[in-house]
Amino acid sequence: EGPREVRWVRYEGEDTQHRPGWARLKGFDRAIEKLCRSYRGEVWRLLDVVRQCIVFESIEDISRCFQGICEDEELVILRVKNRFDPQFTSQQSGAYRDLCLNVRLDNEETRRLGVNLHVCELQLSLKDYKAWAMHSQGHRRYVDYRNTRGE
Q: Ramachandran region of residue 26, left (φ > 0), alpha (ψ -120 to 50) or beta?
């Protein structure tokens, strides 16, 4: 029997290296900036207020996760940005690469709560890229580039 799928695991351990970290909501100032610069005030286009990143060791792991997401009947994929694609121009992201999905959860509970149309961003990233972005000037370069373009 091969590895089994685990849909959700609550982490209770002391090992902080593998503890999930929950992303913060997009900041108010950045949300307003993005609305004005990129979306001409069209609020419905702002899709990354709620976001999360899952970090993987390999592209194969990302591919398996993406396949599982595609097969999940409750998860509706609205958009996929594949920044790993060789056709993707890395200057658009300050050389950062990931697989970025806009998704919404549509099930009985989300419909009952009235949040089944709420869009979230899910980033599937490689550990090495994430480390580079977090512990170097990688993210700063991306922000500088984005600001130069007025995004």
A: beta
Calpha distance 64→61 (Å, rounded): 5
Number of domains in the chain: 1
* Stretch (H or E) spanning 112: helix 108-113
Residue type at 79 in one-letter notation: R
DSSP string, 11-69: ---S-GGG---PPPPPPHHHHHHHHHHHSTT-GGG---SSEEEEEESSHHHHHHHHHHH
> 39 in a domain, yes or no?
no
* 3-state helix vs strand vs coil in the chain, percent to 5: 40, 20, 40
Q: Which domain holds residue 138?
A: 47-149
Q: Distance between CA 45 and CA 151 in Å, rounded?
A: 13
CB-based contact 93:83 (threshold 8 Å) = yes
The 10s digit of each residue's pLDDT in 15-67 is: 545 455 667 777 788 778 877 887 788 887 777 777 888 888 899 999 999 99
